[in-house]
Amino acid sequence: MSRANPILSATDLEVSFGDLKPVDGVSLALRKGETLGLVGESGCGKSMTALALMNLLPNPGTVSAGEILFEGENIVAWPEQQRRNLRGNRIAMIFQDPSAAFNPVFTIGDQIAEALTAHDRMFGHEAWSEAIRLLGEVGISEPEKRAAAYPHEFSGGMLQRAMTAMALACEPDVLIADEPTTALDVTVQAQILELLEQLQERHGMAMLFISHNLAVVSQIADRIAVMYAGKIVEMGETQRVLAQPCHPYTSALINTVPKPSFKGRLPTIEGTVPPLHAFGAGCRFAGRCPLADQHCTEQEPALRKLDNRQSFACFKELSA
Amino acid sequence: MTEPVLATENLKVSYASRRTGFFSPAPSPIQAVRGISLEIKQGEVLGLVGESGCGKSTLAKALLGLTPISAGRVSLLGEAFESAGRAPSKALRRKISMIFQDPYASLNPRLSAESIIGEPLAIHKIGNRQSRKERVRQLAEAVGIDSGLLSRPPHQFSGGQRQRIAIARALASNPSLIIADEPTSALDVSIQSQILNLLTDLRQQLGLSLLFISHDLGIVRYMADRIAVMYCGEIVETAPTAALFEAPAHPYSRALIAASPALGVARQERSGLLAGDPPSPLNPPAGCAFHNRCPWAQDQCRESSPTLTGGDHRVACHRAGEIEP
Amino acid sequence: MSRYLSGRFIQSVLVLAIMSFAIYGLIGLMPGDPVDLMISADPKMTSQDAERLRELYGLDKPITERYLNWLGAAIQGDFGYSRLHAAPVLSVLWEALGNTIKLLGLAFILSISLALPLGIFAATRARSKSDYAINFFAFTGISIPPFWLALLLIIGFSVIWPILPANAVPADSDAGWLATLQHLILPIATIVIASMGGHTRYMRASMIETLRQDYIRTAYAKGLPMRKVVLKHALRNALIPVVTIIALDFGSLFSGALITETIFSYPGMGKLIFDSIMGNDFNLALVALLFATALTLTGNLLADLVYAKLDPRIRY
C-alpha cells in the first residue's frame, strides 16, 4: 500500500538532560489521517519525545542529536520564535490531567479564544464565537453558557473535550495526545476516544497517541510503537504487532495484562527498569529478557524489518 | 455453613459538607453510601467496581472504621463490628486491614520498612519485641522483600516494592479480611502482574478473604470470584464473575463492560457508549440513580429507586427481566 | 455575598467592642493616672487638689463604671478630650492619621511597585546569578532592624553627606510640597527597604510555585510567548496569595511604623499611640488603639474580598 509522506517525523532523535538521555535514538513518522500509538511504561521516554517535538522540554533538557522534520524541513535548528509559530497552530498537544491543564482564573471560552488570537487567526468577538462553535463541535452542550464558565465548574470529561477544542482551534496538521484518558473514568474515556477518532476523520490530522495502556492504544491507533528505556523496540501496524509481537518486551507487555477467562498465574517481567545511567553497551532489555545471551549484552540491536508492516529491535526470532 | 467474613446491612455513610459562612444555613449532608448490603464469604474475593464519585472508597473507609457510619450495621466474622454511633470493636479491628492505592503516599516516609510492617503488631500489642522482629522478617520474606533491606526508609524502594511493604503491613495482624483499594493502579503494568500474583499466592496460602476495589474491569475479572457493581452510592448488581461478564443484567454494568478497552477486541459500536458524566454525590438523581443516562429508562425509573433482588445474580433495575442482552 | 458582608460587619463590631473593654481595662491597670503626671509636673499641687481633680475627671470611680461611661459617650460620637494635646481626641487622631497615610501610603506603594517586578524577575530566572543577588538584597532588607537602618541613613545622608534633612517635617510649616517631599525621603527609604525584602520574597516564591503548574505548560503549548505566559497566566494566579499577605500587612502598617516615626520625629499614628500610653492619656490611647484595630480588621476584610475577586473558585 502506498503511503503518503509523513507530515512530522523524527529521525534518530536524542534528548539529553545533562549526562542522562531519556530519549536515545527514536525515529517515528506521523502521517495525515493516521494515528500512531506510542506505548511504554513510566520513564521510557515517551512524554519526553512528545515534548521534544513541540520544543517544550523543561530546563535543562535539549535535543542533543537527530532531526525533526516538519513538512520536510528540519525544525530542530529553528529559533524559538519560529517553533512558536508552529506550536498550537500546526502542531498541537493535549495533556494528561485536564483538571490541572486549564488556568483556573480565566473562563474556558477565554482560554480557547486565546489559542486563536495567539496565532493571529481571529480576534475579539469573532474569536469568542469560534470558541463557542468549537465547544459545540467537541460535544459540549449549551456551549454559549459553558464558554463563560470557569474550569472548576466542569467535570473531568468535559475539560478534556474543552482541551481538545482548544488544541484544534487553529486546525493543526498534527495532534499529540499525551495520556489524554488516563485520569478519566472508563465510560468517559470511551467517549473521549470516540471523539478523537471522529475529529481525526473530520479534520484529517495526524495523531500521536501516547499511553502506558496497551489496550487503550489498541483501540485508537493504526500503527503502534513500543518504547523501552529511551528506545523504540518494536513498531508496526497495531493489530499485527499485538497478534504477533516480535520483541520479547512487547510480548511480555501483552501477556502481563490478564485476558478474559484467564485464571492461572500471570506472566511477569523479572526485575525493574534500570536507571538511565546504568546502561552498558548491549540491548537495554537484556537484563530482564528470558531470551538474552552473551551477544545481547555486548551489542545493541537495531530496528530491523520483519516485513513492510512491522519492525523490531532484537537479535532473536520470537516463536509464536 | 460458616458465616460470612463480612456482612453489611443497609449501610449508609454521609458526611457534612462545608458551610459557606457563619450565618449561612447548614447545607444538606452528602450521602456517599446510600444503603449497601453485601456479604463476603470466607476465602472469597469480592470485586467492587465503580467510577469516581460512586462511593467505593468511602465504603472501604467506613468498613475500617476510618469514617463513621450514619446508619446500618457491619458484622465481621459473625459478630457485630460497628454501627451508627458505635465505633468498631477494638478486639475485632485487627481482623481487617487495608492496602491503599498510592504506594508513595501510604507509607510514612520517616519510618523504616521494618517499623512500618511492625506497626500493627505494636498497636495491637501482639507478642514481644523479639517475636515481633521475627514476624516482620517472616512477613517481608513472604512478600518478597529482602530482610537485609528492612532498615531502609520507603523512598529507597521502588513503587512495586513499596506496595509489597504495604501488603506485609496489612498481613501483620493476621487479618481475616483485607480491603485492597486499587492496589495496582499506580504501578506499571509489568509490576502490576507481580503484585497480583503475590496477592493470589497469599490468598491461597493464608485463606484470606479480599475486598478488591478497582476501576479496571480486566484485573477485577481476573482476581475476583464475585463482583459487585457500584453506582452513586448503591450496589446495582452482584454476580459471580463469569456470570457478570457473560450476561450483565444492569444497563450500567453493560455500559461499563462495553467501555472497558480490552486487547485485541474492537470497540463497541457507538450505540453502546454512555453519554454524560458519572453523577456527583452532591446531587444524586431522583428515583433510580442511573435513569438519566439509561437508554431503557421509563417513568417508573424516574420515580422510584429499584431494590437489589435475585439469588446468586442480583440486580437493582425495574426492567431487569425485560432488557435483551 | 451581602450575607457574608453583614456577617463580617457584625463580627467586626463584636471584636471592636471586646477590644475596647480589654484595652480600657489594660490601660486602667497600668500604675498611675493623668493626675499623677500633673503632680509630677507641678510640685505645688496638694493632695487635696489631686483628690478634687480625680473626682472631677471621674478617676475615683471603679473601672467598669468608667468604661460604661466612656462607651455611652462613644456611641453617641463623643470620644472625649485628649489631656496631652488639650484638644478633642478625634481632631488629634485625624491629623496624625493624615500624616501616617502620607508617609506609609507612599512607602507602601513604592515598596510594592519595586518588590513585585523584582520578585517576578527573580522567579523567572530562578537559581541564576541575578536571582541570588535579588535574594541577597531581600534578606538584607528583612534582617536589618529598621531603627538601625534609620540611624545609618541619617548618619549617611544628613551628617556625613548632608543632602537630606534628618527630620520628617520641615520646621517652616509653610514650606512647599517639594520641601515636604525632601523631608520624607529618608523615612520612606527606611520603611521601603525594610518591607520590600519580604514582599519580594513572597512574590518570588508564589511565582515559582505558579510556574510549575500544568496550565503554564498548556499556555506554552498553545504557542504563547513567554512574556504573555508569565505576565498574564502566571501573574494573576501568583498574585492571589501575595495580595492576601499584603492586604494583611496593610492593616498593621498604620500602627507599626512607631520606631521610624520616633527617630524622624514624625507626628504619625505610631508615635501618637506610644506617647499617649506613656503619658497616661487614656482617652487618646484607647481611641487610637481601637482605630488601629479597626484598620486591621478592614485590611483583613479587604484581603478576603480581593482574594475572591481574583480567584473565581472562591465565592461567598
Walk me through this protein's architecture.
The complex is a heterotrimer of chains A (320), B (325) and C (316). In chain A, helix 4 runs parallel beside helix 7. With 320 residues, chain A is α/β, with parallel strands linked by helices. The mean pLDDT of chain A is 90. The longest helix of chain A is centred in the middle third of the chain and has 18 residues, at 186-203. Chain A has a single domain (8-90, 170-312), classed as P-loop containing nucleotide triphosphate hydrolases (Rossmann fold), CATH 3.40.50.300. Chain A has helices spanning 46-54, 80-86, 98-101, 108-118, 124-137, 143-147, 156-168, 186-203, 214-220, 238-243, 248-256, 294-298; strands spanning 8-17, 20-30, 35-39, 61-70, 73-74, 91-94, 174-178, 206-211, 223-228, 231-237, 304-307, 310-312. Chain A is globular. Chain B folds into two domains: 1-16 and 29-95 and 177-194 and 202-325, P-loop containing nucleotide triphosphate hydrolases (Rossmann fold, 3-Layer(aba) Sandwich), CATH 3.40.50; 107-174, no CATH class. Helices cover 30% and strands 21% of the residues of chain B. Chain B contains ten helices and 13 strands. Chain B has helices at residues 56-64, 90-93, 113-123, 129-143, 159-171, 189-206, 217-223, 241-246, 251-259, 299-303; strands at 6-15, 30-36, 39-40, 45-49, 71-76, 79-83, 96-99, 177-181, 209-214, 226-231, 234-240, 309-310, 314-315. In chain B, a hairpin with a 2-residue loop joins strand 5 and strand 6 (79-83). The model of chain B has no long low-confidence stretch (mean pLDDT 86). Chain C has 316 residues and is an all-alpha fold. Chain C folds into two domains: 2-83, no CATH class; 90-310, MetI-like fold (Orthogonal Bundle). Chain C is 78% helix and 1% strand. Chain C has helices spanning 2-29, 34-41, 47-57, 63-75, 89-124, 129-143, 146-160, 177-211, 214-221, 226-256, 258-263, 269-278, 282-310, and strands at 81-82, 87-88. Chain C has a two-stranded antiparallel ribbon. In chain C, helix 9 runs antiparallel to helix 10. The longest helix of chain C is centred in the middle third of the chain and has 36 residues, at 89-124. Chain C is globular. Chain C starts with a helix and ends in a 6-residue tail after the last helix. The model of chain C has no long low-confidence stretch (mean pLDDT 84).
